[in-house]
Amino acid sequence: EVQLVESGGGLVQPGRSLKLSCVASGFTFSNYGMNWIRQAPGKGLEWVAYISSGSSYIYYAETVKGRFTISRDNAKNTLYLQMTSLRSEDTALYYCARHVLGAGAYWGQGTLVTVSS
Amino acid sequence: DVVMTQTPVSLSVSLGGQVSISCRSSQSLVHNNGNTYLSWYLQKPGQSPQLLIYKVSNRFSGISDRFSGSGSGTDFTLKISRVEPDDLGVYYCGQGTQYPWTFGGGTKLELK
Question: How much is the average pLDDT of B27-46?
Answer without folding.
Answer: 97
